[in-house]
Amino acid sequence: MSLINQTSHSKASLKSSSRRAETARVYAHPIPIIFPEPTYKFLGLSLTRPLNPHCTALFDPLTRSAWVSNSGDATLLWQRGFFGKGDLSRSEPSWLARQINARQMKGKGLTSEEITAKRRAERKQFKLDRAKAIAAAAAEAETAFNEQGRVIAPGIAPDGTRIIPSAATWKPTSASVLSEQSPLDVAPDEEEEIEPIQDLEHLQLSLQEAFFLVWALDCLTILHPETNTSFTLAEIWNTFQNAHIPSSVPQLNAPSPPRFDNPFLVSYIAYHHYRSLGWVVKSGIKFCVDYLLYKRGPVFQHAEFAIVVIPVYEDPEDQANSPFTLQNAEPFTWSWLSTINRVNSQVQKTLVLSYITIPAQSRVSPTILSSPACFAHYSVREVVLRRFIPARMRD
């Protein structure tokens, strides 16, 4: 018996290690640009040029995002830095792979959405089976007491085994799994001609991600939504700021009013700060925060830190005259802070309050806002918050 357990354990560990090795190979590059090993040097300088993919995205003013429609560019941006998310997926653009898996019904190579759906179906079936077993055990105990006048332990068989299933002993049945599958998962008739599936998904980049790829890495081109022509950097700079200006008709590349507290600038300062430090920055709306920080990426481990961006005005007069209502600019309540901290503590994330100091317009000339050179006048301060749990932190 020990030999069998050792063999099965070695096979499982080998399969797990090969899966980790494949994941590390696919997501080996932290940014879209690849710097190959220098093959030739002249006077101590490498003549090898970096490999720049030069992806293309279409700006969408309604959703304040940039859409990458080319599947090759979308896959590249996701696998090299985890930029964006699939508009028909949870994170990784995997809608086409899910449709192919549903059509083939091979049960292999499940995507993250399919794995989550399978686990939820199994968890639901476990709760139903456990409720039925508890009701049956209670009815059996009540019948034995009424008819024979004896008290029996509910849920315990005569041989001492448990009748009520537990999470450790319950196993899903094939019938329960099949009952949870959608009609799209039914295998088509072999004689029926199968039409090719058209990929309807695109990669959706936030404005912060798009500007980081354009300005910091120079590997993305933004197209005008109407003329389909390329934006210049100055036009992108004005367009992304205008996207946050309240207006019935968005002004794309028109010069924006110079404001240091533009919501795009404040949020990009935080995004660029953590990206430049090597973190993978993703949206944290699921956990009531602005950003989540991953050490390597979502496919490797969960996020370690949850970032709340808090803008701080250097001059209170600028806040009083501002046309923007920045989130968290006003003092927040302790109940709000405790709620956010508790939510992230339950999922093993450390809450970080990131204070972005907005420079005063009386000290810095607004003309510097005509280019990204204004980023040098912002500052970032961080406060790490941890929830005190006496039972865990007693030592």
Summarize the structure.
It is built from 10 helices and 12 strands. It is of the alpha+beta class and 395 residues long.
How is this structure best described in words?
The protein has helices spanning 2-26, 71-79, 95-104, 112-148, 174-180, 207-216, 233-242, 263-276, 316-320, 334-346, and strands at residues 41-42, 45-46, 55-60, 65-68, 85-86, 203-206, 220-223, 280-283, 291-294, 305-313, 350-358, 379-385. It is built from ten helices and twelve strands. A hairpin with a 4-residue loop joins strand 3 (55-60) and strand 4 (65-68). It is α+β, with helices and mostly antiparallel strands. Helix 6 (207-216) crosses helix 8 (263-276). The strands form three sheets. Strands 5-6-4-3-7 form a five-stranded mixed beta sheet, with helices on one face. A five-stranded mixed beta sheet has the order 8-9-10-11-12. A two-stranded antiparallel ribbon has the order 1-2.
